[in-house]
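Supplementary Note 3. Input sequence used for the single-chain structure prediction.
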Amino acid sequence: MHQNHKIAIVPTYDELDASIANEVVDAIDQKEDINVEYIVVHVKDKVVTLDGIVPTWRCKDRASEAAHSIDHAKEIYTIKNELKVTHS
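The predicted structure, written as discrete structure tokens, is reproduced below.
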């Protein structure tokens, strides 16, 4: 069951980066315990950056875990979790 998440992808011209970004968004969207306020997924040269706002530290950690769980995870160089937590 998909939630009404506010997740955006920063456009990229690299086919693999675009595929990684789409997989990350799908993985985050499928995690029912991630309460997303707003997340932007940016992938450039196989570096994934998660930016935006989540309500708790657990949601921040779970978003990163979701990104690590995708099919192309072995091709990702690093995941930068720059999500801001609005509540403690």
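The chain has two helices and four strands. The CA atoms of residues 17 and 44 lie 6 Å apart.
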